[in-house]
Amino acid sequence: MHHATILGLALSLATTLVEGRPPHHVHAVAGLGTVKCPIIFDGRVSKTAVNTDFDSYGTSKFNAEYVKGKELKWSDIIKFPEVTSARFDNDTHKPFEVTISDKSIFQTQNGFRRAGLQFQGDTNTGSPGSTGVKTIHFSLKWDAQRALNLSHEYLLVWHEAADYSANQFNFEAGAILGQSSLAKDTYKVLNRQNKQVWSTPIDKTAWQNFAITLDFGKK
């Protein structure tokens, strides 16, 4: 069985942007002056993209080899559902979907399933996405044909420390292991200590849009 929500990046989502923001969240006004919030990594895919584009570094915006089951290609994982456009899509972009199955075993991690897209150029050290103030934008839509089993825990979007010691945040759905008091049918943000800091009900009919800001200058 394949589980998924409709995507823009990582395990289950559509349209993902990482933008740089100046201090104090100053926004540029369209058509005036210079761009103050440039896009650092753009996870949107072309309207003409096919799933085999994800298999090659030459045609994919993401790591063509990780993170997925060793028996799978990304073209086995990526789907293009027939849905309305997400918030940041336009006439030149389209949503895509990441699926998981019993073949989604990364290396020897048999206890869970993984299919996580990583941006090309987002390195462990010196990444342009890990300095200053950055905001990750993404949109999610429930797929009734490949519905998530919310009795399980789904890590949908996250930002991992360079030394792999922790995640700066986790964006999750479903039942969180060891935290049975948290509602299963919500999207939730967990902090570095794995404590919930925000949640919202999952809307199974419409796109839901999210933005998470990280300030790498703060300790």
What can you see in these coordinates?
With 219 residues, the protein is mainly β. Helices cover 2% and strands 31% of the residues. It is built from one helix and 13 strands, in the order E-E-E-E-H-E-E-E-E-E-E-E-E-E. The chain has one helix spanning 74-77, and strands at residues 5-7, 16-21, 39-42, 45-46, 78-79, 93-94, 96-98, 133-142, 153-160, 167-174, 186-190, 196-201, 208-215.
Which secondary structure elements does this structure contain, and how are they paired or packed?
Elements: E1 5-7, E2 16-21, E3 39-42, E4 45-46, H1 74-77, E5 78-79, E6 93-94, E7 96-98, E8 133-142, E9 153-160, E10 167-174, E11 186-190, E12 196-201, E13 208-215
Antiparallel strand pairs: 1-7, 1-8, 2-3, 2-8, 4-6, 5-7, 8-13, 9-10, 10-11, 11-12
The number of helical segments is: 1
Work out the count of structural domains.
Answer: 1
Mean pLDDT: 85
The N- and C-terminal alpha carbons lie at a distance of 42 Å
The largest sheet, given as strand count, sense and whether it forms a barrel, is: 7 strands, antiparallel
Along the chain, the helix and strand elements come as: EEEEHEEEEEEEEE
Tell me the number of strands: 13
